Amino acid sequence: MAIPYIKGSIIFESSLNIVDLGKLISRRLLGGIPLTGLEERIYNEVPAIFTKDLFLGMRIILSGYSGFDKEYGYELIIEPDDFRTIFETKKSKIIDMADYLKILFKHEFSQCKEIKKIKESKMIDIEIIEN
Q1: Sites in the chain below the pLDDT cut of 50
Q2: Taking the model in full, what pTM does it have?
Q3: Measured on CA atoms in the order 109, 23, 57, 120, is the torsion positive or negative?
Q4: Is residue 40 packed enough to be buried (19+ CB in 10 Å), middle (13-18) or exposed (0-12)?
């Protein structure tokens, strides 16, 4: 049986710095699972924090910059940590959680003045080709 490729991403703006925003998201959405690793610089030019431990095989990443301007913004990403597992399968169904994340995020943060303009991000689909 193929393992589904679960992904999800939302883009939003916030006045909070990435560490404080990560603490808020951890507390309100992740049941206290911390987002850390800023010093590890997992992305070359964009600050990012992430879950060190996997949740159901998934890694959660928060990246971006604070500010309420079209040049600034954050992206919250949920994706599998081990892409090899996905590519080793013959077929893999893609499950996009963007709509769910958008609804959940709006529900949790609609009254939060530090977070605005929540919208989903369309991640690039990965097609698994059977040999």
Answers
A1: 123-131
A2: 0.82
A3: positive
A4: exposed
